Amino acid sequence: METVLAGFKVNVTDEGYLTDFSQWTNEIGFEIAKEHGIEMTDQHWKVIEYLQEKFNNNEALSIRGIKKSGIINIKEFYSLFPGGPLKISTKVAGIPKPVSCI
Amino acid sequence: MSKTKVKKMLFILSKATIENVYAAFIMANGARMEGIESEIFFTFFGLEAIQKKKLEHLHVATVGNPAMHIPTMLGGLPGMEAFATKMMKKEMEKLDMPPVGEFLEILSDSGCKLWACKLAMDMFHLKSEDLIDEIDDVLTIGDFYSRANEENTHLLFI
Fold first, then answer.
1. B34 Cα to chain A: minimum distance (Å)
2. What is the pLDDT confidence band of residue B94, given thresholds at 50, 70 and 90?
3. What b-and-e string marks burial along B94-129, b requiring 16 or more CB atoms within 10 Å of the CB?
């Protein structure tokens, strides 16, 4: 469905994930984060960049991948994106919701 | 994040076969990933999964397990259990499932509490130093029940 985020017209899924990454901008990421009560910091953006790079390389995302990322450890990840870190961070990053169970 | 009403999942892991251990770990980790609290209470053979010396040597059962689809007599041959376990671990690695030790680190870092059962520890003559460092404490079952201290908490026995 079509919606407006931070003044941009974008297509999202029922759960609010962008369906087309090319529509994503920093402002949109900022807006989605705000909806989840997250104030974006440099550390948050580093994670977002990492996730987008993985997405562009067609690599699957998992919590194990975060552990090995060298960008952030799991504890920090949970404190940056509380209440479902991988699901919220991928939404902010404008990439699809991860399908893995791990 | 998730629309579920479940707030907290408490798992009791009483077995040491690989499929049971991973079932508990994946569900406990999955809960944390959805913003649900989770804790695991390791009792009886479940304690094998948190003993430093044993946790990387857990097996799948090839005897008394109809889902293996091999005759029970064959399953009992020497080396069968090790072979089946090796095959299963290979498939798990393909799906990026972490080995037991790494999985426990992930769970602990994710905020999943890990408890050892006091009675089973006494029965198997285990000491705290036999267990991995990530264990939060040794509890009685009464202590563990008191962890179910909020609404929408679920207990699951594996």
1. 5
2. confident
3. eeebbebeebbebbbbbebbbbbbbebbeeeebeee
Which residues of A are part of the catalytic machinery?
101
Q: Are B114 and B133 in contact (CB under 8 A)?
A: no
Tell me the per-residue pLDDT of A27-56, one tens digit each, with 9 for 90 and over: 999 999 999 999 999 999 999 999 999 999
CATH class of B21-157: alpha beta
Q: Can you tell me which residue has the tokens 């994670």?
A: A47
List, for residues A72-96, the tens digit of each pLDDT value.
999 999 999 998 999 999 999 999 9
Q: What is the ipTM of this complex?
A: 0.87
CB B2 to CB A84 under 8 A? yes
Instruction: Collect all residues with Cβ–Cβ distance below 8 Å to B15 and sequence separation of at least 6.
Output: B21, B44, B45, B46, B158
C-beta of residue A17 within 8 angstroms of C-beta of residue A83: no
CB atoms within 10 A of CB B69: 7
Q: In whole angstroms, what is the distance from residue B27 CA to residue B34 CA?
A: 11
Cβ-Cβ contacts under 8 Å between A and B: the total is: 51
